[in-house]
Amino acid sequence: MTGSLKRILLGEQGLVVIFAIAFAVVSLTVPNFLTERNMLGLLQSVVTIGIVACTMMFCLASRDFDLSVGSIVAFSGMVAVMASNATGSIPLGLLIAVGFGTFVGFVNGVVIAKLKINALITTLATMQIVRGLALISSDGRAVGINDASFYQLALSKFLGVPTPIWVMVALFVIFGFVLNRTVFGRNTLAIGGNPEASRLAGVNVDWMRIWIFTLQGLVCAIAGILLASRITSGQPNAATGLELSVISACVLGGVSLAGGRAAITGVIVGVLILGIAENVMNLLNIQAFYQYVVRGLILLLAVLLDNLRSRSLGRR
Amino acid sequence: MTGSLKRILLGEQGLVVIFAIAFAVVSLTVPNFLTERNMLGLLQSVVTIGIVACTMMFCLASRDFDLSVGSIVAFSGMVAVMASNATGSIPLGLLIAVGFGTFVGFVNGVVIAKLKINALITTLATMQIVRGLALISSDGRAVGINDASFYQLALSKFLGVPTPIWVMVALFVIFGFVLNRTVFGRNTLAIGGNPEASRLAGVNVDWMRIWIFTLQGLVCAIAGILLASRITSGQPNAATGLELSVISACVLGGVSLAGGRAAITGVIVGVLILGIAENVMNLLNIQAFYQYVVRGLILLLAVLLDNLRSRSLGRR
Amino acid sequence: MTHFLEFSNITKGYPGVQALSDISFGIGKGRVHGLMGENGAGKSTLIKILSGDTRADTGEIRIEGAAQNFHSTRDAFAARVTVVHQELQLVPGLTVAENLRLGHFPARAGIISFRELVEDVGSKLRDIGIDVDPRTKVAALSIGERQMIEIAKAVMQDARVIALDEPTSSLSSRESEILFKLIDRLREQGKVILYISHRLDEIFRLCDGCTVLRDGRLAAHHATMEGVTRDQIVSEMVGREISDIWGWRGRAIGEVRLKVAGLSGTRLPKPVSFEARSGEILGFFGLVGAGRSELMRLVYGADSRGAGSVSIDGRPVAASDPRQSIRAGLVLCPEDRKFDGIVQGRSVSDNISISARRHFSPFGILDLGKEAALADGFIKSLRIRTPSRKQDIVNLSGGNQQKVILARWLAEENVKVLIVDEPTRGIDVGAKAEIYDLLYSLAEKGLAIVVVSSELPEVMGISDRVAVMCGGSIAATFDRPEFNERAILAAALPDRSAAEPIQKVS
Amino acid sequence: ADVKIGFIVKQPEEPWFQDEWKFAEVAAKEKGFTLVKIGAEDGEKLQSAIDNLGAQGAQGFIVCTPDVKLGPGIVAKAEANGLKVMTVDDRLVDADGKPLEAVPHMGISATKIGEAVGEAIAAEIKKRGWDPKTVGAIRVSYDQLPTAVDRVDGAIAALKAAGFPAENIFDAPQAKTDTEAALNAATVVLNKHADIKNWVAFGLNDEAVLGAVRATESVGIPAANVIGVGIGGAESAINEFKKADATGFVGTVIISPKRHGYETALNMYDWIANDKAPPALTLTAGQLALRDNYEAVRKDLGIE
Ligand SMILES: Nc1ncnc2c1ncn2[C@@H]1O[C@H](COP(=O)(O)OP(=O)(O)OP(=O)(O)O)[C@@H](O)[C@H]1O
Ligand SMILES: Nc1ncnc2c1ncn2[C@@H]1O[C@H](COP(=O)(O)OP(=O)(O)OP(=O)(O)O)[C@@H](O)[C@H]1O
Ligand SMILES: O[C@@H]1[C@@H](O)[C@@H](O)CO[C@H]1O
Ligand SMILES: [Mg+2]
Ligand SMILES: [Mg+2]
User: Fold this and answer.
1) How far, in Å, CA of C357 to CA of C448, rounded?
2) CA C166 to CA C85: how far, in whole Å?
3) Which residues cross the membrane (chains A, B) (predicted)?
């Protein structure tokens, strides 16, 4: 490898470059991949993961963990539908759903920050409690919506691109900005990098953690609403296992589980890698059971490449 | 509260004491709970979690993470059945299954220690790969065993107690001893406390991590064999979600996810808490959906109690 | 008379330890006040109470007559009290500028103005005399540089009271001098400075008065330093006289034990060679960033070697593995106690026995009795202040943690070469003398001892030979008869005209 | 003595099982016995559930097993606890895959129900006058669930029998059994075959088929060009029929949880209380419900 090529591949943006190369290869070799329709389909398929990853990035960067996202997504979607039905007003229904998701996130945050309970256990608990509530409130059944304009949230388009994709993009931009340019973002990284130092420097660590989980809840509610709109009903079983996909996407994108390290470009790439892997496997008609194996291998490969990159970066 | 009562509750063995009290309360209030039959049933129901928790304790104590346990349990059970069928010899089948589990654990360890890939991602990957292989090798269906003496592994009893329970107890004793009384156990805790300092103090960190994951694989294989014997077949879908239950049990038992802290008594209590919760909910005929909520609340409550305990311990 | 800063009846206890009992004293405006005491005497605890990090059990702090009630470090900051803690408190992933303004970013509507941040921090750093680009990530700085940043963090704020807990423990004399000038300026501005150090010279150089703590009690309070002598303070601290702290004694120097030939690594590109002999104490002096710690880590195999070889008694030691080094009889006490030394969350006993326990563990099974005896022995002989061997090491005072790390290697059998990087960093005078004494007796047993230190008097006081490093290579070596402060310092200073600028990874 | 009967199901979250439980409860009220409802998602949980029932002093239980191969284990466990056992929905088999005739069973054949779906789709194709050669079929698959495989295989068999070309059937493997996963998988199939105008879809249950229908909507295929037929007939399907405009989800094959829940519970009660063994095998049939007749069909089957 020549020096400059090496520099590009192994530089700060190395992950993005590797991803771009992989994308080009896939585009050239997989039939039907690089079509407008497929691209839109692909992006729509990662909307839930992508949206939730925005705040999960903050959560991981501050050395926390959130397993309850899947349940919150499912339940807020149901709340949106049920509240819209009950009040007869979709905006009101959405507001209530967002309020609900935010509230659950807030509870997570308070329990974790104030009662000092391990985030893994807390969110594992709320994951089950919220899922239970979702099942109880609907008797385990899907809830349909009476007003068809609810579906328009997901079906409507702007410049030919469906609204959910725009929402995801907007959140990427917003949270990317927040991470890099605001006090909130920098404090998040500081907490993750050295909680003790941050506390001594006067960062209100408890308050930051509460905010991060609250935001996580809010963003999950948005994802839940869009999902309910896409599947035209609120389903208590939706989004199970979402937490692991989202965390994988973040880690793939270079967010450190040990805290203190995160970048929105990485997270976007991580989300896209997962989405493309699924998409391509289906395009190539890979058998369901083999998909498990391939998914695992891709995960390993992606992190391995990134590790090699950052290791040789450290050696320069 | 009088001083001495406080001392007992909040002391070193506080978790055990709290548990003992809770156990007494449940025994008195829940009909059919404290019968020999129910106790044996309860213990059998926690065999898989209990066995796997032994090595998960080491994994967490050394600041690692293993999500692949459920898949390894499922696949080793299948391997045991398939290999017994193929070779016509049960001992040979079991040996092959143990070898297989150990091998997967070893691969986990090597990838994590030598290629320096994040344990969460590595084991998330192997979790999927192994599950995929299990599905592929059986075409997604359970595999039955021809030789009925295979069931005897689980059905046989010694002093009126089924073999799987004895195996679990033996492993608790062995790994409890290893943790506290051997160089291996102490080094595990040291790595969890400060991996770099341990390395500089001459602990072979890479080698330790490989061993820990290898042992984890071996122990998962044992759990898988007993499970296959209990359910009289090898099932590719068995033990999904096991990882979270096992990790919860460990954390409930005071194993720190930040590494460096673990005790076998805690882990045993953690395992029993989970088992008793399920058992009692079913004895009390609590509805399935409410069980989710109760499970979550118990998790929170147990950790909260323990936190209060160790906090006031620090304040004395 | 009311003082600007006043402690009254401060008491603080931890399980098994009374860290402070009934401490009362005051400091006037525009004065630099020393705080002295043995390891574990309670100095840091007092500072932590002043900074709002910990709360006293009883007692109160008054500033300008007003009682303060700090619940958090933010409260203390609002009352214009800042502190440099004994352990570095920086976030490695953030830049220097971000670290310096963490908790107080210049921002409008929550959006940080990075230009303002960098300019503001840059100009203040230049003002103070620290030559570091504010955009550098802290992870890329050496310990010494980090220490300077930490000091800048406290000093930059417009504080009334500044407390410095062993700020010079990893600074060389050159940086220390920058700090002293800074303190003189702060004094002129009328600030109150509480200064903790185990280096008596500094106390006499800087302080207008001082307070000595012993076992958490007030042992002495001197409103001025007039008529106060070194010996007096030492005896107030340790309760006995120490005549000659270095106590160097000659001994027979034998064969070459450690031979380092052409060693280089990523952060030490130029090959370095040196030797240390049986019975010899070889000092390594240099300025911060001279590469001494890098070199020792390479020798020990803590980092992977580029080229070169290390041998002990003529036998080569395998590259890049501390375990091989330990087995060959080569051990290192690292410089960075917190990250490379102590194992957090584990007991004192566990920290001592971590390496040596393999010798008393047949089939890997520990002999708990031996382990306990070993730990208790060192707690006694090194006078480690801890309620028991079961105490979590993070609860020990800094100096006592350092002793535990030393004990770890003293417990090893068969050590041939002992490398100690800043061995007395954070160690009190009494213990220092004990440690030196220990080093001599180890040398007398035939070990080769390499001591890295940034304290020139220490290097000159205890070494048989001194190697001076500068810019990643050994610039000169001096035998004991040739020791000369100016010559050694001169060798340590880079030749500004010829030297290439130091490259930093950000 | 008091009669206590267990009712163990493999997926308590599924509406189907909620309904089975509900109807079993009706029987319990009528006859005055206690019903213990336990969810058991895998073999291990099932074993514990049986032990638990034994410990509570139950006399028998009805089970829909997470896997039919668990047969010998279930029988042994039941014997060890002295419990009578009968199965519902899915029939137990031995190691060689032969049904355990000794265990009374009430159920539906997964293959049969799949065939009903296939036939319904074929009929609708004919009604709309499509040429099968120009129609694409989405097989929303979840192959790790044996019942799911049998159902879609049944549908495929029926379609082929009706002259549907095998090469026009495309696999859309869902990663999980929810609608979103089916939606994502089906979208890929649609985009891969952008030239095909008319689509049919079938899968494991209503949720799977709904996902495929949502996918057609999201890529802009009009409802008139889509025929999806689900299985189950619970809320998700009913919601679809209640929508003001017809969607591509034209029907669902309803199976009656009433008989499965109520009758099995009653049978078990008779067995315990009156020593009257249940019939060795009862097979119930699914019934196709369409947008305009679903209410009638549901009434017919005793639901609502
Ligand atoms: N969090 C804690 N828990 C228990 N004991 C503690 C804790 N913090 C400090 N101590 C104990 O309090 C005493 C005073 O410690 P402190 O850190 O104030 O000493 P110091 O004078 O700063 O010593 P050094 O010179 O070694 O830094 C020591 O015995 C120490 O072990
Ligand atoms: N993590 C790092 N990344 C990049 N450069 C580093 C890093 N750590 C140290 N350096 C640089 O390597 C050089 C040698 O540092 P080293 O710590 O070995 O010096 P030293 O002589 O021991 O001084 P000190 O008293 O600071 O320990 C310095 O220029 C330092 O800035
Ligand atoms: O799993 C199915 C369930 O979904 C229901 O349709 C009844 O039969 C079972 O086999
Ligand atoms: Mg101190
Ligand atoms: Mg150094």
Assistant:
1) 23
2) 8
3) 14-34, 40-60, 67-86, 92-113, 158-179, 210-232, 244-277, 289-308
Strand positions, DSSP E, C136-280: 161-165, 192-196, 209-214, 217-222, 256-265, 268-277
Residue C503 binned pLDDT confidence (cut-offs 50, 70, 90):
very low
Q: What is the token pair recorded at C500?
A: 């290439």
Q: With helix as H, strand as E and coil as C, how does C490-501 read?
A: HHHCCCCCCCCC
Reported ipTM? 0.86
Query: Residue for token digits 């705080």?
Result: C35
Binding-site residues, ligand 2, Cβ < 6 A: C 139-144, 170, 267, 286, 288-294, 335, 454, 502, 505
CB contact under 8 A, B293 and A121: no
Closest CA to B278 of D83, D44, A122: D44
3-class DSSP state of D244: coil
CB-count exposure of residue C227 (10 Å: 0-12, 13-18, 19+):
exposed
Q: Does the pLDDT at position C502 exceed 60?
A: no
Contact predicate C405/C337, CB 8 Å: yes
What is the residue extent of each domain of chain A? 13-25+34-307
* Dist CA C320 CA C302 (whole Å): 6
How many Cα atoms are found within 13 Å in the side-chain-facing hemisphere of D35?
27
Burial class (CB in 10 A: 0-12, 13-18, 19+), C313: middle
Question: How confident is the model over B33-63, as pLDDT tens digits?
Answer: 898 888 988 998 899 999 999 999 999 999 9
Q: Give the count of beta carbons closer than 10 Å to the beta carbon of residue B307.
A: 14
Atom of ligand 2 nearest to the CA of C505: 4
Give B 196-255 residues with CB within 8 A of chain D.
227, 230-233, 235-240
The beta strands (E) that lie in chain B are given as 143-144, 157-158, 161-162, 233-234
- CA neighbours closer than 13 Å in the CB half-sphere of residue C4: 17
SS3 B98: helix
CA-CA distance, A211 to A188, in Å (whole number)?
Answer: 10
Is the model more confident about C205 or about C174? C205
DSSP string, C275-336: EEETT-EEEEEE-TTSSHHHHHHHHHTSS--SEEEEEETTEEPPTT-HHHHHHHTEEEE-S-
- Which residues share a beta bridge with C210? C34, C222
Which part of chain C has CATH 3.40.50.300?
A: 5-238, 256-492
- The one-letter code for the residue type at B125 is A
Sequence length of chain B is: 316
**Which of C44, C87, C390 for a ligand 1 pocket mutation test, highest count of atoms within 8 Å of Cβ?**
C44
Q: How many CA atoms lie within 13 A of A234 on its CB side?
A: 33
The 3-state secondary structure of C146-179 reads: HHHHHHHHHHHCCCCEEEEECCCCCCCHHHHHHH
Query: Which option is the CATH number for C5-238: 3.40.50.300, 3.40.190.10, 3.40.50.10490, 2.60.40.4070?
Result: 3.40.50.300
In this complex, the chains that touch C, judged by 3 or more CB pairs closer than 8 A, are A, B
pLDDT of residue B85: 92
Domain C256-492: state its class.
Answer: alpha beta
- Bridge partners, residue C195, by sequence: C34, C164
Q: For residues D200 and D170, is the Cβ–Cβ distance under 8 A?
A: no
Per-residue pLDDT tens over the stretch D51-108: 999 988 899 999 999 888 888 889 988 998 999 999 998 889 887 888 899 999 998 8
Q: Each residue of C431-440: pLDDT tens digit?
A: 888 889 889 9
> Does C320 score more than 80 pLDDT?
no
> How far is D189 from C403, CA to CA, in rounded Å?
68
Ligand 1 centroid vs B44 CA: distance in angstroms? 49
Asked whether D236 and A142 are in contact (CB, 8 A), the reply is yes
